[in-house]
Amino acid sequence: MRVGYVVNTYPRPSQTFIRREILALEAQGIPVARFAMRRDGDPVTSVEDRAEQDQTRYVLDSGAARLALALAGAVLRHPSALRAALRAGKWGGPGRGRLRQLIYLAEAAILARQCRDEHLTHLHAHFGTNSTDVVRYVRLLDGPGYSFTTHGPEEFDAPQALSLGDKLREARFAVAVSAFGRSQLSRWAPFDRWDRLKVVHCGIDPAAFPDPLPLPPGPSPDHPLRLVCVGRFAEQKGQMLLIEAMARTTAPVHLTLVGDGPLAPALRAAIADAGLTDRVALPGWADEAGVRAALAQAHAMVLPSFAEGLPVALMEAMAAARPAIATIIAGIPELMVDGQTGWLVPAGDAEALARALDRAATTDPEQLRQMGLAARARALSRHDIHAEAAKLAALFRAHQQD
């Protein structure tokens, strides 16, 4: 068995979980060929990602002329694939119309040829968006069967525009990263395909999280609760609500927002308007080492998200023995246990979030440490990359002849 992994843009700093999954599969004896449609526009900085980039084949590197020829050949030999692409384009929203679907079909024609050349027996896409469009069209071009992993919330926000039902019906199997995610796939899959909907968590490497560093001093009147929030500055992550909650706290709390994104200017303005410039730090984007350094300086992680799949940043913080304050959405309550590994709050409720921040800030340091250790044990037991990759490998083997 030889598997091809397909991602739209790879590698990227936010996709370390894909890299870990691939390496863990290879450690279990499954060769993995890496494919991406395009290269990341930002420079690849980490040694690990440069190694992945060197092994990745980029479909769009083929050039426009070769893509056009591949599309013409695909249309002539496989009119059913053309009909599927046009149908998907009919239901697609902005950026997913018929022209875009024809581009995906051309990419699939290039990829199908590479599959034949390399004798690939299965394709697996990450994200149920355009990467899964491409592997679906590869199958319709007489290429290998496919599976895909959905993360959310994108797939669940626009299932019809993404032709999610068609993808689920035609896939050998589909993976969700949480039970909540599987429930959302069940809404769009025929009942007789529910047994093909599987849960495989994103994984973390326990070896990357040795004995945790001690918590910083406090929290106490002299040492404020130190929180870190890691994530892209975008509406769904809820950082603007977190600023509102910070302004309502009564206990001493300091927040570090690690990340960057389109909301960065608005966040800076909101922090200034709330008079929080001395209590909220914005160091910018950080790599894996930078995130771990920020966690080492924090008492707890805070994630005020409005929409998620199951945040890798949360499981990594818990593996580093940091309790969390997070919202009761998507897969988060499956990982966290309220009152044991941190605190769960309703999404969108600034007052409830502020109360949770105050509660964490007045928690006895030893109790906070014990909560962190409970969080670590839960994350490592549920998200060991080697155990999760073994589940995925078993699925590849069981379904390779479907």
From TrEMBL:
Keywords on this record?
Answer: Transferase
Q: Coiled-coil stretches, from where to where?
A: none
**Gene Ontology molecular function:** glycosyltransferase activity
> Has UniProt tagged this entry with the keyword Transcription?
no
Q: What InterPro entries does UniProt report for this protein, alphabetically?
A: Glycosyltransferase_grp1 (IPR050194)
Signal sequence span per UniProt? none
Task: Please identify the protein, giving its name as recorded.
Answer: Glycosyltransferase family 4 protein
